[in-house]
Amino acid sequence: MNNPQEPRLTPIDEWEDEATAMLDGVDYDTDLGLRMARDAIRVSNGELSDAEFHEKYHEEVLAEFGEDERPTKPEGFDDD
Amino acid sequence: MTNYGLVIDQERCIGCQACAVSCKQENNVPMGQFWNRVLTEGGDKIDTPSGGYPEDGGSGSLDMQYQPTACQHCENAPCVKVCPVNATYTRDDGIVEIDYDKCIGCRYCMAACPYNARVFNWDEPDHMPEEGTGDVAARPQGVVEKCTFCSHRVDEGLDPACVVNCPADARIFGDLDDEGSTVSKYINEYETDQLLEDRGTNPKTHYISGEMSPGRPQTSDKMESELDDVSPWSDGSEDVPAEASESDSSGSGGSHHSIEGDAAPHVPAVGSGGDD
Amino acid sequence: MTDNDGLYRRDVLKAGGAAAALGLGGGEFLQGLAERGDETAASKRDPGIESYVGQNDVIQTVCSPNCRGKCPIDVHVRDGQVKKVEPHPPEDEQYKRACVLGLSHTQRVYDPTRLKYPMKRTDWSPDEPNPDGRGPDAEFERVSWDEALDLVADKMQSLKADFGPESVLFHVGFGNYGQSGQAFSRLASLFGSTQPASTIDTNVGRGFNRVTGTGFYLPSTNESEDWENANTIIVWGSDIFSSQFQMDASKVLDAVENGAKLVVVDPVYTTTASKADLWLPVKPGKDVHLALAMMHTVFEDGTYDEQFLRKRTTGPALVRKDTGTLLKSSTVFEDGSDDKVVAVEQGSNTPVELEPETDGPYALFGEYTVDGIECETALTRLRDHVADYAPSKVAEQTGVDAENIRTAVRWLATRGPGGIAPSYALGRYKHGHIFGQTYAMLMGLTGDYGQHGNIHAHHSGGATLSTGGWSTPEDADPGPSVRFSDYPDAMIDGDPHKIRAAYSIESNMMGNQFPDRQRFREAIKSLEMYVVADMHHTDTVQHADIILPVPHWFEQEDIVSSWGSHPHISYRHKVQEPMWEARDDYYAIRGLAERLGFGDYFPETKRELLRELASRDDAIDFETLSEQGTQKKQNIPIVKFTDAFPTDTGRIKMYDDDAPSEEGVTFDLPRPLEDRTADDYEKADEYPLMFMQKHSRFRIHSQYEMLNWVREVNPEPQLDIHPSDAKARGIEDGQYVRVYNDRGEMIVKAKYNEAFQPGLVNTDQGWWSRDYLKGHHNDLTHNEVSEIGQTMSFYDVRVAVEPAPDDLDTEKYETDNPRGTGAETSRAGGD
């Protein structure tokens, strides 16, 4: 994936294509991975809070992975 | 608190690939994978410039700079947020690391990392020599791996391999929370950038570009904080600001650097006092 | 979550599983820290990461190729295997160094190209050499060391009896900076064999020598620790940050950080150029014009160093107008000498003899009549000569903007001590010696000798073990020398005498590195016996009759000189015993010496040899060296050229009345002379592109070609070509192209590269035959040398380029084999 002969980082507006390629063939929901990736950057940017991010994907993550151990879990969050 | 970070002086970096390859060696990185790549800010291929060859005999528009790039150990690491099994986590000292035992290979972290710093072992990892190299065990097929700031070395008081092996003294590792550390001083004194600052990831890797720093000579493999004899680059005195501003003012006629007759020359930087 | 483990996790390493069993969570690494001191616990500090820090045996040794590193290194060994390499600070710690190649020995030690056993070409015998069996299809069979050495010694003896000892050539290259070469030359001297004379990279140094009395390869220069004192560094024709100086890059960068101006003169926008304050994109071959224009500016500006010119040069010396010779002291003074020259004192016009290192009120310019002889000063001649080379006048010819020429030399002349760091590349043009002469004189004008901050070459002086003539015993009757470039004539045509057998160590020259490779192949074919000792199965080895396997450097004890690198001698401690049946060159040399009747001349063991050689160097103590691993030679001056110059006058020659001539040009003053770069070169239309073979950071000559880590970054030979040159030929970026001229061809991938001047193409040197889809870069180069420069002109070569044929087999570099042939196994493994 990270070819040492590639001269530069993938431009950010092309990043989703790259991310899609990375997730291609993965045993898990690729669409979920992409959406979470996109929103994780919004969390970094402060556009979304950890708690909002956690809640937004909790059900899907649980369904897909059978667990949700992300560190974004707000205090008192009901895991079930 | 300790908060490790890295400063890379792009004005000093000569693109020699020593950091890229010594990283592979130290960390037993499989063939076909790089945790640390030396990117080129320039043309469409590594080691090529942007711009056009001058047609008028002038210096023209060609431009090229190297940008070594590995995991940026972001303060707000998106990879950590998306990992459903908490395999990717941030250590108390700020190093972003992967628990390979937990990693299930979903690669969500790779999609979330805007720096393409992570690699996935699709196949049984291929090492040359077969038995592997360096000072950490190989990772199995099916997990994601990446730069750890050489946490196995840092835990023993040693600088990361890429830092120790840089012949240009362009890589400086240390505690961002310690105001007296060279990394902190250089971030204060020089113009530094983080990659993709608009993403809000707040990387702990900072790039100096524009004005060259004195670097951080490595005459020992120990971290600065482990050195008894405090190095000239971290003693908190005015040496860095003074030198930085002095070179600013050295115009074309700058005779203040000339050495007349038997006058004592500028004394080359001495060893850092490492005791190996 | 423990319950879910088995459901989602892939198999993990046993070690990883053990760590998991400890149940350490992400936040618990502090627990590990608390248990520091307990190795097992420490290694499990982070879950999933098993660390081996502290578990390695560390052996200090040294890397030894023909580069400007000679880097003292630590080799980490665990479980009986080399695991990694790190730089080890030498006695003077500021010379801590290593590069991407030295750091990768971990791969080189175990590479499948390593030779394992002595071998004999299957269809070779001393009486039936079957020369046509040599080459790519040659097959080899394993023989014992005794068998191999018996065969070689017997053949040498019979050739000596029939044709004289000079019919055998002992060829040594530069592939190892240990001391086995000393023993090799000693045996050659005793046997009386033909010995080699280098015609590689001596061009610039020979020209510099005409002016200063020193220089063969590049002249010595201040040790690199002093480079940060430079105020102006003009790097001329060298990518020092990729080759020659990358280990010392910090020292140049420190100079720049201190405020030095970095100027790069190069037709290529190199890594070094990308760091420069000013880049002069000179056209290939026009360097002398450019340097003369710089002299012109110095004269015009009056920025020459008058005191230096009076004290240390023949600038004020008088030249007779009638004969063009310098006015000799013996002509003017009764007790005057033939070696001394004469100046006049300014004002009084009184003639005075010029002593070395003596200042005086000598007239620098003007015409004077002494004893009725009309004269003018040497400096006047030089000034008048360069009057034709105003920057504005040479700008178009050299391709460099006139104002930038002036700026560069004004920095050198006015900012305090600095220098010019020229390269071997300039000497790879046929008449490169003229540049050596020119820049030596230019720095005479600016007074840049003998001070802190002066620079005269693109690598420093370094330290060499002084062995006091051990390689030529007093009772030996050494045979003649034959120049590298004359090998084919000697082997094929018997000119100057017939060479019938060759024994080669530490060299991949004949099969890979020498120019006009096909001619050297023919030369090998004319031999009755070709013995090659090497570490790897190189192209040269593939053409051998007898192959002697040499161990990796980590398996040979040695003392390593650091010529051109740093002022230490290093001890190469063995990291491990030789693998398979590889043996130190000294084993073979001594074994042959015994068989040839010279056994008594050679100590029994390598260690004894090293003790003997070290004892001959007063600045080195064997025990100290062995114990410390490095010893700084205290007698190496940091600043060079502080004493009288070793010329007749003790001064720099600003005019040479005893100058050699070449092609009708006399070099009393620097006069441009070009070969294939000349504007009117006859075949310029047929072969319109100049072809150079840059030294990259990815190989040292042909060494390290096999490193898989490095080949991931730099997988295959390429042709750097400006997009305009490529498009004009219908060549797309990344397309395979055929590069050819009247000697040969090669097929490589085109790489659009704006860094390269239109009209100039490049393939980095050092690749092996196996790396090309067809041909080789040295099938294109030629073996013509200037009689003055005596240096192979690798870059003075013209080629044409066209798209490669459609039916090309490119499988070698398709995506499933990204590392190219480097990932293949060798052909002559032997087991």
TrEMBL record, chain A:
Annotated InterPro entries: Ferredoxin_N
Domain 4Fe-4S ferredoxin iron-sulfur binding as annotated: residue spans: 11-73
Name of this protein: 4Fe-4S ferredoxin iron-sulfur binding domain-containing protein
UniProtKB/TrEMBL annotation, chain B:
Pfam families per UniProt: Fer4_11 (PF13247), Fer4_2 (PF12797)
Gene3D superfamilies in UniProt: 3.30.70.20
Residue span(s) of domain 4Fe-4S ferredoxin-type: 4-34, 62-93, 94-123
UniProt KW keywords: 4Fe-4S, Iron, Iron-sulfur, Metal-binding
Keyword Lipoprotein: no
Signal peptide extent: none
Annotated spans, Disordered: 194-276
GO molecular function ontology, one term from the record: metal ion binding
Keyword Signal in annotation: no
Protein name according to UniProt: 4Fe-4S ferredoxin
UniProt organism field: Haloarcula sebkhae
Automatic annotation (TrEMBL), chain C:
UniProt record similarity statement: Belongs to the prokaryotic molybdopterin-containing oxidoreductase family.
Domain (4Fe-4S Mo/W bis-MGD-type): residue spans on this chain: 56-113
Name by which UniProt lists this protein: Dimethylsulfoxide reductase
Top-level taxon of origin: Archaea
Native source organism of the sequence: Haloarcula sebkhae
GO MF terms held by the record: iron-sulfur cluster binding; metal ion binding; molybdopterin cofactor binding; oxidoreductase activity
Residue span of region Disordered: 804-831
Short name of one Pfam family: Molydop_binding
Cross-referenced PANTHER family: OXIDOREDUCTASE YYAE-RELATED (PTHR43742:SF6), TRIMETHYLAMINE-N-OXIDE REDUCTASE (PTHR43742)
Keywords in alphabetical order: Iron, Iron-sulfur, Metal-binding, Oxidoreductase, Signal
